[in-house]
Amino acid sequence: MSGLGDDLVGRYFDAAERLLRRVREEETAAIGAAGGLIADTVAGGGRLFAFGAGHSSLAAQDVVYRAGGLALMNLLSVPGLTGVDVRPATLGSALERVEGLAATVLDVSPLRAGDLLVVISLSGRNALPVEMASGARGRGVRVVGVTSVAYARETAPSHVSGTFLKDHCDVVVDSKVAVGDAELTLDGAGAPFASASTVVTSAIMQAVMAAAAGELTARGVEPPLLRSGNVDGGRDWNDAVFERYRERIFHQH
């Protein structure tokens, strides 16, 4: 690797570490509050869901059916918007801007009053995350938003309501990611590059899961955690968790 390549690698890790430190220093209380809402939902018999469109879906998927994760976390998926599983990939971006799509998804989803939905959207400005959060709350679902609040300060809203995802949540965790989601610049490169939102948002989601597990344990409630299927006894453990919480787990149906 060239000396320039080595420098860029170091600059990227420095940028990612700075973001993670900022989140730890400034968002620990919000992460704890999100974990508390999840603990309330688990203890109260509710179900847990996570939603993200496009690349924001990666952090949502990372907490579903995950070793060391909560078994009750389900993915609320929308065809064409889970990662980049549609061609052309630009169709996913277009679908995220379709007004009314979130209401249709919620109408046919298993979400009900007393559940909790985590909505992940870096910009939080498009119709789908805005309407997913507002529609879920209107149905009696508690909503945690994971987003970059900078977009609400530095960009114009694209939804007709003039609002962002952050305006429709019970708890908001700010990822601190800069508008544009690219951490590096270089003379001759023409555009910024090297995004960090997936790294930071995935860390936030795992921290929220940790906070929830800790809060449940503090209340004397054993958290419904999954073990790795690649350790001895892991699959038997998971089978027992699935059986106990079968009616609240949708990724096994």
Automatic annotation (TrEMBL):
PROSITE patterns (alphabetical): SIS (PS51464)
InterPro entries: SIS_dom, SIS_dom_sf, SIS_GmhA/DiaA_subfam
Pfam family, one: SIS_2
Source taxon at top rank: Bacteria
Gene3D superfamilies registered for this protein in UniProt: Glucose-6-phosphate isomerase like protein, domain 1
SUPFAM superfamilies: SIS domain
Residue span, SIS domain: 38-221
PANTHER family: PHOSPHOHEPTOSE ISOMERASE, SEDOHEPTULOSE 7-PHOSPHATE ISOMERASE / DNAA INITIATOR-ASSOCIATING FACTOR FOR REPLICATION INITIATION
Record-given protein name: SIS domain-containing protein
Organism: Streptomyces chilikensis
